Amino acid sequence: MARHVRRDDMVIVTSGDDKGKQGRILRVIPGDHPNLTKVVVEGINVRTRHMRPSQANPQGGTVQKELPIHVSKVSPVVDGKPTRVRFEIADNGAKRRIAVKGGGKIGPDLKKAR
Description:
With about 110 residues, the protein is mostly beta strands. Helices cover about 0% and strands about 45% of the residues. The chain has no helices and 11 strands.
């Protein structure tokens, strides 16, 4: 099933504690079911973890990391505002994502031309 976002897309968070913040997608984590897909966004949903000393980190201390959020809580950004995504098949057979607002192409083609 095609997703409206991919890795390296600029997205905006549409709900939750980080609503309105923008960031770049670092990872897409597919779930067993399409409703379980999550994404990790740069600078969004950052949590602090207190680590005890180990061989890898002899000092211990605190580590901040981005945790996944559900894919439905993010939308691609066009001109600083969120947009929905439409999928189109070009004449040469390439599948591409089109922004509903403005009609511009989003990212590279999903499926290469024949």
